[in-house]
Design goal:
By secondary structure, this protein is α/β, with parallel strands linked by helices. The chain has 2 domains: 232 residues, Phosphoenolpyruvate-binding domains (TIM Barrel, Alpha-Beta Barrel); 47 residues, no CATH class. It is built from 13 helices and 8 strands. The strands form 2 sheets. It has a 5-stranded parallel sheet. α5 links the parallel β3 and β4. α4 packs parallel to α5. The radius of gyration is 20 Å and the shape is globular. 41% of the residues are buried.
Amino acid sequence: MVLHTRTTPAERRRAFREALASGRLLRMPGAVNPYSARLIQDAGFDAVYLSGAVLAADLGLPDIGLTTSAEVAARAQQTARVTDLPVLVDADTGFGEPLNAARTVQLFEDAGLAGLHLEDQVNPKRCGHLDGKTLAPREEMVRRVRAAADARRDPDFLLMARTDARSVEGLGAAIDRAKAYVDAGADAVFPEALADEAEFEAFREAVDVPLLANMTEFGKSPLLSTRTLEELGYNIALYPVTLFRLAMGAVEDGLRVLAAEGTQEPLLDRMQTRSRLYEVLGYEGYASFDSAVHDFTLPPGA
């Protein structure tokens, strides 16, 4: 029976640190929900991401800082429970002042996460690939990062700093901010909305900590391949909203077909089967605990 992951949060944090130190590129899709985190693991990826934009959209909200630390921590705990992969979460601006950022770190440690990233926008924040962002003063973000670093109880919990300065103050300022955040205690850096491959290269040359490349669709950055990112020396290739966009595109297509045809029959070949669902959930593994949960046979074609 596998009600929970087989590993502890401390083990996953150490594994994440070791993987980042290895120099290889980690591929990190964003989960839509806990179930999709299990699919990410089954597909052979290296880590799971929880996007603030996806969580907000899932709640029917825009990504402008409306979700709370408690809401994000609850979804994070549900997700970390079901995968042995390390989980990195989007902590927005820390949900308030430096003291709030400190509490956020401890909430997310308790949720079983491997790490989080904090950004240097002010509230109400915007998606990193939209114009009109407003940055917090550098020293304010430094205090935010320092408070988060000081709040850690597990030194392996990864603190990543995200800077949105590239599209507001320019590449040089983004690099300078990143260095200041590392000096304040950030273990890794997430440079948001870099414009081209040359900027990714310049950032790598200037900043000597693990770097995340955000390969979000329909944004300001080019969609670089894993081979290119490896050659550039990046440590994480992030696909934050890919699965959400795929899933919602499929939902909209399915609704159109169902409305037009009056039956879901034409959609069956696009669906995950009942047997695959049960396989992912591990129904058979629960039988040793209680045979009543696995005393059925699937109908033909399921």
